[in-house]
Structure formats: structure tokens, C-alpha cells
Amino acid sequence: MTASRLLRHETILGVLTVIALIVLASLSDKFFTAENLLNQGRLMSEVGLVALAMTFVIVTGGIDLSVGSILGLTAILLGVFWKNLGLPLPAAMVLALACGTFAGWVNGLIITRFRVPPLIATLATLALYRGLAEGISEARSVRGYPEWFFFFGQGEVLGVPFQLWVLGLATIVAAVILGLTPFGRATYAIGANETAARFSGIRVDAVKLWIYTGAGFCSALAAVIFVSRVTTTRSDMGTGLELDVITGVVLGGTSIFGGRGTIIGTVLGLILIQALKNGLALSGVKGDGTIVVIGLVLIGAILAGALFDRNRGG
Amino acid sequence: MKKLTMAAIVSLGLMTGSALAASAWTGGDDLPTNPLACDGTPSAAAAKPYDGGSPTNPPDRKGKKITVVDVPKLIGIGYFNATSKGIQDAAAELGNVDAKTDGPTKANIDEQITFLDNYITSGVDGILFAANDPVAIAPVLKKALEKGINVVGYDANSIPEARQWFVNQAEFNGIAKALVDSMAAEVGGEGGVAIVTSTFTTPNQARWIAEMAAYAEKCHPKMKWLETVEAQEDNNLSFNQATTLINKYGDDLKGIFGMTSVATPASAEAVTQAGKCGKIAVVGLATPNAMKPYVEKDCVKSVVLWNPVDLGYAAMQVLRAVADGTLQPGATSVKAGKLGDLQVINGSEILLGSPYVFTKENIAGFDF
Amino acid sequence: MTALRAHPGRSALHRFIGGYGQEIVVLLSIVALFVVVGIINPRFLSDTNINSIFAGNAYIAIAAIGMSMVIIAGHIDVSVGALIGVIATIAGTLAVNGYPVWVAWVVPILFAMAVNAGVGALVAYTRIPSIVVTLGMLSILKGGLISITAGEWISDLPPEFMIAQMRPFGIPSAVYFMVALTAVAAMFMRYTDFGRSIYAVGGNMEAARAAGINPERTVVGVFILHGLFAGIAGILFATQLQVIQSTVPPNLELTVITASVIGGVSILGGTGTVIGSTLAAILFACIGSALIFLNVSAYWLRAVLGLLILATVLADMARRRRAT
Fold first, then answer.
1. Which residues, listed in sequence order, are joined to residue B229 by a DSSP beta bridge?
2. Could you tell me if the ipTM is greater than 0.95?
3. Chain A residues with CB-CB distance to C144 below 8 A
4. A270 located within any domain
5. Is C312 part of any domain?
6. Does pTM surpass 0.95?
7. Considering the domain boundaries, does residue A70 fall inside one?
8. Which residues of B touch C248 (CB under 8 A)?
9. Which residues form the domain of C281?
10. For testing contact with chain B, the best of A28, A29, A32, A230 (most B CBs within 10 A)
């Protein structure tokens, strides 16, 4: 896992992203404007936050399919705490965040304590958490939030959308943790060889528990931002989020087998996908065509990365 | 692990218990209902002042060519294929409109917002929409209005200030009355009925079910609601759910309401395959083409709908009128091409007409 | 498989139960379910209801056979739902355009096998993880289907095409397919060289290679087989109703994967049987129907289902730990 190896996939991805941006900008003059780019940043913040946490998860060789359901559950709980239980909105927000984080912690518990493989554990909690959201809300939406609440999802600071600041800050924090701290090194070690990591004294279960709790927290944070952006709560919010997040993370070079991946790769992957979705739409491609292109780009980019790896004898 | 199994069984018991406590028809929302009179006397409609939004400094589009995007709840189902056709028909007739339909492949508000956002950025002149959620769609629609884009909704409304006009296919209580009266006519005013809907979070479906419950309580109190099941917009799932209902209630089930253009034919198919044509009535919203085989075999007596092609057509005509400035806030009617004059109700809604009931006699004359 | 020989001191029956533990648990769950729900609402046990449960869900069990093979080989396929949607559309289009019925049945199956051969080759020879390739394939199939069909319903299907609605001796044909295919696949996995090599490759690829097995060819072969089963499932899915919707059935891949996993196929690869996944698919279908019969509040249906899946998974993990 030397620096040159790390950079190879990210470099290809970076080049690919730049090429894509140039092509998309040439197809539509509305694409490469400050307003559009900032807006896209706003729209990708929710996926971005969860993807940061998902990078950690996938680097350990695990996966979390329940992030979308945690988002939906947190959104519903936010509304329920505020409207049905009458809590002041800031308290409701904090409590909802706590619940979403707890849901992530439960995921971690099932995976570490009960040794259920992450795919299965989160497949089950995907259904359970979404079901809880549907049951608790009984299909009712909560609306009528005070004006100040909409700042998180719709407001701006110095001209940049608020959630983009949050995403930027989170990215820096995540990159520092993953790349520079013992926790980050432990994450890589677990993904590379879990048994060896355990024997070398790393508290594998504790690290994993933190990581899945973190995924829960990021999903919950994304939920609060999303509710603020659309001014209402629905139990089907976040459906399909996990696939978008995993696509971004994997495109960014994080290996699904664990042990490899960087935050910068994830960020590049997310930017590429968001750029494609937006740029293709602006140049007149309809939704179904965009989906096909993203599928092809995913396979193509990973293929390119794999081929380059092999050529260098990696 | 035994403890967990016990916990699961206890939770199951609790959830079962909560089901028995529900009194209103499951699947309805809790907004106020307004059932019509049982004998068909139209309700006195108080005139409301205009409550729609307006675009900020729209450019003068009178007579000029405009680009319009239509973003329905989802693409890939017959109903929105039909509205899209209506929109294209109107665009062709008007001659100065460039319209296209694009939208998410699932009825999901998250994606629909992204679609709308992209089209706003690409600089369209007009937006037609059918909302997956009336409140969630508001911020992005307001953004469109702020950019001077004309915004008109159809089929599924947003909150009024987020769009200029909304073309309403029929009033919610009118649809409820048509459905419940058709069912009562077939099952004789009493008997057990079940509902197959899309999801409980779909606003239109929830409104209709709530109004149906209120109207049935008022005018057909002996009609017994049994259960509502969700079937998304999937044909096979609707079929399986309807079949389960038929198996569960046996002879106690006298009728099935289908709340979407997917659920109704699938329910009719379930009744046919179970051999219960004539014993279980199927009444619902559906396109005539999907129901022709069942209506011809007398398995289904009446299908309630409006003409979705006309709906799309009217929406496009209204958008053109708004862009041209010929339709202003405060108007009481609008000329919609070949549909003639349409009435304005509820301040900023344009009524397509009354729900249409397709029967064996007239269904052959329609092709959508 | 290996558990059969793990406890030489025990009786043959003991070893059998140890080896097929999860399958037996699932079977007992099905029986328990029928008993409990049948007492509460006897209509659950009526032959029309049992027929409906099996006929309506047999295609899931068949798709789960192929998925189990893929998972046993150490891979996964998240695009199977989209593939089935495409299969159904191709079959319906061929049928209404006048092609002979057997063409409408066979060509889509061949298409599924070809697509999956490509997927398998990518996975085997370029070492791209299967979840990535099939994630991409999911997008391509889904987008392609909508682009080409715009969701237009296919109706006026010729009656002789409707294989799922045929009922030899009163039992839906889908049930015959399910039982026969499960039996054939089970014997194939257990008694043929290729079947055993699937287990070997899933258990430890390098050890398999050292033992003379060609892992790459095995992986491609497994995906092609998976395509075969997905294709048959797609044909049955297409012919259940008078119309074909030309869209991707929602959540189908998750249901199929869950059925395989609950049925005892380990996501780590190398263990599990197709009998288990078929039984689990049946259990799922029964639970879905049972929850409605039991009057579980419609708002809480999915939560109960999720809880049941979790309970089953935890129980399975506990059982495995006790066994080792």
C-alpha cells in the first residue's frame, strides 16, 4: 500500500473526472457556472456525508446497506419528536441524531458481537429500520417547520451552501482520521487481514463498532439536512441511497475486499457521478440514458484501474 | 437466541394488537374530508381568491416558442405515458411548444427534485409536474418561479404557492363518490370490501381513501371495510396481494377497490384466476385499455377514471396560456383548445371535469 | 458439507442434522407457520391459498437457486431483478410479434445466459469484484429497459405462451419447475465435478487451483448457470398475468439474496445448499401471506419482516457457533 500504488487509481480517476468535466462543459454552457456547481454541491451533500463514513466501512472489508433506511428513520423521528412529542426543535434534532447513531451502533453490535456478516446484518436492518420508519409514522408526514430550520438545507454562508461547508469539514476530518491517525491505520489493517490485525493487538471489534456507529451518525446528519432541504418528512426518504453511496465509494478506488481506499478517491468518485448526472441532463440526455452511462462508467473505470494495476505487476 | 425469538413474537403480537385498534380505513390521510351529498346534489363551492404563486420577472413569452419539460411522478407506467401523449398532442397543435417528458423510474420525491433542479438550470421556459409529495416539491418549484419559469401542475398537486395553476382531473370527493357508488351498486350497499393501493405515503391515494371512508360512512353505512394492502406500482405484487385478500376473506369479501391504474387490472386478474368473476366486484381507477378484457367478460362492470390524455392536453394548454399571459390570476375559466372552457375552482385549480365511468357499453370507444 | 465429517463420533442422523441444520430449521419454521396461522385463520390452509403462495412465488425460489450457486462460489449478483424484468419484456415482445411460443420461451433464457457469461468473464478474468460489475450491470439493464420500452405494457399475449398459468393435474406448472429444478440443481452441486468445484472455488480459490480446478472457468460457468435459472424465473414471472409491465420488479434482488442467505448459503462462500434457498424462498412467501392473514397492522408489515429476518440470521449464527 505504498503512496505510488494509492495514487494510481486516484490519478486515473482524477484524469477521468477532468475529462468528463471538460466534455460536459462543452455540451452545455449552463454546466460550468458557479451557480450550477455550487448547487450540485448542495445536492450531493447528503450522499457525500454518508459516503465518507461508507469509505471506512468498505475499507474494513464490510458493507452497510442500511444507511438509506437509517436516513428515513431519522427523518421520521425528527418529525415525531418535534410534532407528536412536542419537544423544542433543537432538542428533537439532537435526539433524532442520537437515534440514528444508535441504529448504526446496533448494526455494529450485530456484526461484532454476534458475528453476522455485514452484508446480511445490514440487509436485515435495511428492512427493519425502514419498517420502523413506516410503522412509527403511519405514513403521515410532518411539516410546518420554523423558518430558521430551513437554513441547514437551503441556506448559504458566504455564498456557499451551508451543507457544502458541513461536507467540506467532514471530508477534512475523515481524511485526517483515515490517513493520519492510528485509528485509520487500524481500519486499513483490519481490511487487509483481520486475523493478523487482531493478533497484532488492534482492538478490531471496537474499531468496527465505531465505524458502523459513525455510518449511522452520518446518515442521521444527512437526514436532518435533507428534511431541512425539502421541508417535510416522509418514510420513504433515502430509498436507494445505499447503492448511490456504494457506487461512489467503489468508483473512488476503495476495494470491496478491504484494505484499500482513500477519502480523496471517494470525493472524486462522487464528483464524477454528480457531474455526469447533472451534465448529461443539461445536455438533453434523459434519465434512463444517464443511468446506463453511469453503469458503464463504473465498470469501465474499475476495469481501467484493474488493468493498470496488473500492468505494473501489482 | 430464544430470547430474541420471544421478543420477535411479542413484537408481532403488539403490532397485531395495534391493528385492531384502527377505526378509519387504513391508507387514508388525516386531512379534513368533505363528502358529497348522497343523491348527487353538487356541493356549493365558495369562490376562493387566487392562491397560486407567480414567477418573478418572467420574460415576455407571448407567441414565442417555449421549451417545456414534464416531470411526472415516475415514468414507465401507462397512466403517465397517456398524460405525456396528451401533452405532446397539445404541443403539436399549438405549434410553438417544444415539450419533453422526463422523470424518475421510481415514484420517489428525492429523485424527482433532482430532475426538476437540472431542468431549471438548463433554462426551460415552463415546467409541468405531478408531485410525489406536495410539500417536499415546493422548495424546488419556488426556485423555478424565482427564475421566471412558468409552473403548472397536474394530477398530483403541490402546495398552492409553489405553482401558478393546478389542473385537477376531478375533485377528490367526486372520485370517492363515483368509486363508492359504483361498488355499492354492484355489492348492494353492504358487504366486505378491501382496497389495493400503491403506498400509504402517496398523497392522492391517501386523499381518495379518506374521502371514500367519509362518503361510505355517510351514504352506505352498511359497507364494511376489511383491509387495505400496499402494492407499490407493481403488477405482480398487486396481483399477489389481491389474491391473498381473496384467499383470506373467502366469501366475506364482496368487492375490491383498485386505487391505481396498476392495481385495478391486477385485482381483476386475481379475481378472474380465482374463478370469482361475478362474486367479487372489482371497482377502481384504471385506463380503459388495461380493463377491456375484464369488462368484456363481465368480470368488471365499471371503471372510473378521467381521460389522462385530456389531462395532459389541458395542462399543456394552460401552461401556454399562462406563458402568453392570457390566463391571469382571478380568472374564472380558461380556454383549453379542443376541450373548450374549463372552470377554475378553489382559487388556482382548473377542473378537467367529472370522473368518467367506463362500462361495457362505452369502453370500446377509447384507446389509452 | 464439511460439517458432515466434523463429528465422527456421532450417529449418522446426528451428522445429517448437523450438516443440514439451517435447512431443517427453515423447514420446521414453515411447518410451524402453517400450524400457527392455520389455527388462527383456517383459510390459510385452503388449497387455493397454498396454490397461490406457491404459484405466485415459485419464480423467486428458482432465481434463488442460481443466486445460491453464485454466492457459494464466493460472489454475488445485485442485477438479477433487472435481468428478470428484461427477460420478461423480451419474452412478451417475441410472443406478441408472432414468433413461435418455444422461441419466446427459449431466446430470452439464452439472452440471460449470454449477459451473465459476460459478467462472469469480467469477474473471473479481471478480478473486478462481482458486486461492482453487477451494480454497473443493474444500471445498464434498468436504464436500457426504460429507454427501449418506456414502460409500455405488453398485452394480448397468446394463451399458449402462458406457461405459468398451466396447471397439469391441478398444480401450477411453476411448482413443478421449482421442485424439479431444485432437485436437479441439488444433485448437480453434490455429485458432479463441476458442482463440487463451485464449492471448492468459493471456499478457497487458491487451494482449488492447486487441486487442479480452473477457478476462472468455474466462475464463468456458475454465472452462466445463474443466467439459466434467472431466465426460467423470468419466463414464469412474465406469464403469471395477462400483461407484462416492462419495468424492473421492485426489490426483487434483495428478496432473492435474502432467500439464499436465510436458506443457509454462507455469504463467505463455500457452504450452503440450493435446497435451503428454495425452502427459504417458500418460507418468505408464506410469511408474506401469513402477516396479512394474521391482521398485522399494514403499517408495521415491513418492520415485522425485518425483525424476522434478523431473528433468523441471529439464530443461524448461534447455531453455527454451537456446532463448531
1. B196
2. no
3. 288, 292
4. no
5. yes
6. no
7. yes
8. 105
9. 53-323
10. A230
